[in-house]
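Subject: Interface between my chains keeps coming out wrong

I've been trying for a while to get a sensible model of this assembly. When I model each chain on its own everything looks fine, but I need the whole thing in one frame so I can look at the contacts. Pasting all components below, labels as-is. Any help appreciated, I'm running out of ideas.
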Amino acid sequence: MSAHAAPSTADLVARWRDEPAPLLPLLHALHDRDGFLSEDALRAVSQALRIPLADLFGTVTFYHHFSREPGGLNKPRICTGNVCCLHGGNELLAALKSQGATAMPCAGRCDEPVPVLRGHEQLVGTSATSLAAKPTPLPAPNPGGCEECIFESIREPGRATLEGYRRTGGYEALSKAVREMTPTQLLALVTESKLAGRGGAGFPTGVKWQAVADAPGQPKSIVCNADEGEPGCFKDRAIMDYDPHALLEGMALAGFATGAPRGFIYLRYEYPETFRILERAIAEAEKAGLLGVNILGGVFNFTIHLRRGAGAYICGEEGSLLNSLEGKHPFPRNKPPFPVTHGFENLPTAVNNVETLASVPPIVRKGAAWYRGLGRNAHAGTKLISLSGDIQHPGNYEVPIGLPLKTLLHDWAGGPQTGRTIQAVTMAGLSGGFLAGDALDCTLDEPSIRGKGSFLGAGGIIVFDDSRDMVAAAHAAMEFFAHESCGKCFPCRIGTQRLTERLNGEAGPSDLAAWTQEVRDIGTVMRATSACGLGMAAPFVTDSLLKFFPEQVDNYVVSKEPNNR
Amino acid sequence: MSATATERELTMTLDGEAVGFRAGETIYQVAQRTKKSIPTLCYDERLEAFGACRLCVVEVDGVKAPVASCTTKATAGMVVRTDSPIIEKYRKTLLELVVSENREVDVSPLRGFASQEFTTLVDRYGARTGRFKGRQSGTSNKTDDNPFILRDYDLCISCYRCVRVCAEQEGDYAITMMNRGFGTQITTEFNGRLKDSACTFCGQCVQTCPTGALADKKALRAADLPGEIAKTRTICPYCGVGCSVDLLTKGDRLIGVQPAMDGPANQGALCIKGQFAFDFVQHDDRLKKPLVRQPDGSFKETEWDEALDLAAAGFRRSLKEHGRRSIYGIASGRAPHEAAYSMQKFIRAGFGTHYIDNCSRA
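Reply #2:
Try treating it as a single job with all components included. I did that and got this:
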């Protein structure tokens, strides 16, 4: 315990009130100080930031990790996500119940389950006695011997420090851009590289930056989406923990290209150690004149603000993220207008994923042609894949786009455990639903996977071997989407709930034809009419379940038997 | 001039017909103007379009998924279908889902102005199929003891019209949404009682609620009274704003007040007095004759001639003993123009003072 007196509410308000995007850091400061958010604290915040108290209360209750009960911050929260419930997450939750433990959705540690959040720490372990704070697993050397873009130097010792980063070309790209290039040249280079959004949407990065550069209004912003909430995705965490300066440099380059003087990193709540690593890296870069005013002695200014989410998958959706950053209720925004013209505080904003931004420095150093050449079958570049579940070597892999899925599963990651076969994999974390059978003969690129009825998305792949009940897996997935539905649009709010109930027997017809019709009708209306990607994607789970595992569905609906083999 | 020219230039195709529109109009607004009947539940034309209920989705040529017509701006050359069989099927499924989350569909029209919207749509689409059974959303607040607003959230469909009307129209920001997803609950700060919140009991949340989840407790007192509900358009008698209202009556009994959504001064808004303070009209304690205070402090009923003579004598005495500055007139805000004019004439010409005011200024 610190000997210093706890800061007063007035001190904390004074610290944050005049900063950009002040609500989340101020709430966190009070939450950290008191261990929960008291009524007094919320009244003070409401007054200081001029947010109506009812709005503020509603917004606070939206986030999973803001506790409104004394002592809440220090109670353990156990991951019971899709992967962790294959590895004892529910049993660990039961074992820690006496300490006030509660469940949390996927916390992005699927390569080394089960994560537990307590206070300011993330612990991992599969039993109450084995819980320990451990660093994020370092990506293994590329098993295919493929040339990498993002992971090329990530395994160098000390890479997370400024000195370590500079040993292997760090900040050379920024230096080159600021000293030798115009923003127009940088934009052209990024466009030529065919780099596209690695958060899952795949929008061409150069086109997005060009739109921000062309849009009227200042100050523009670069917002790094580090919310990584998709279950089965933990790639951004590896980048930020082992190569934080690559992200900072990528953001600065984005700022230079678009004319944005400020950047925000919106980091998910569940990565407390990552927060500290990024905080240190930003301070180091500022001290070295690589961020801030007159970067590298020139006229370019760029400041990065680190902001921490509070537990909401939907805040990975860019409209929700921007609302959250602005201190508003984190509902998605109606589009158009898009963030490139009306983003943070209604000004032009580039919202980019961590992986996308971290790809930019190597592209600037080595050229657009080099990056394009990293892919296979005419696909440009690489993609990080987070692989987890029933696989011998879970972890993050940087694959050439176009690599056969089976090469990754069997040759790179060792295949299933001995004596088991792979029954199914998820795509896009959970959002792409399941692939199984012949559909596993695909390559890791959007056209191929879309051809199988799914999508690559953010690149999370969870493996289920033949011992797993796929209806139970689908239920866990749908329960996640129901838990994370924001509640704004009707099809998603009601649909995710009804599908969850139908997958665990809580409600729904017992007649197979009627059950299937209801599930299909809900899926159809969600996909067609939902307001954002969450509701549009969630039915991939049920559709692929019906497509690949009709016999397991029959067995579950008709005889109510678990599908454990 | 140029606006008219623009108006003529911009056309789109709506269900096969060419329609002109103004820049900035949404597809829904254009459709409304051309008398299309696109269903909605979260829409209130006074509020910023929200895009929650998704019932207003339409097909647009060249766009893969249907778009919400309330939040999508019309563009020149756009080809839109508002009622294709597939769109109508989505709407029916959506309505079946909404029916499944509520305790009941049919509610008394006394609950509020918009309270029949949901049940009307459910019948239009034949959505009482009993499909999609499951848990209900929203929990009624049975402990809030305020005399005006029933908080029957078992009927809530999370359209957020109450939250938005409170913020955008009334500026009170008293209502909020707690939690998220299916667990969303409409409530106030700290999930407390309305009277401990920023609520001013203007009743606008009640009148915009499409399911009757927020309901007019005072009007509901007459639910069991025999007779049809009649509506009479008039002007609120309280202050000088002149809000249009519909008085609800059964027989000769005044049972409630609803704001006129097309009232030029109020556009559906009222305050607590105009909305809820009508009991005096038929109250047993209402004065029907003037009272004169007796030397012992008690009051005696009298006739107007005697009362007015007494009042005139009192004015004369004050004027004589204390001068013209001892007289001060305050006209009632409920007085019509002519009466207010007579009042100031009476004070100015009658007593030679400009000490005259109106209670509406307070």
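Reply #3:
Confirming on my end. Residues 64 and 311 of chain A are 5 Å apart (CA to CA).
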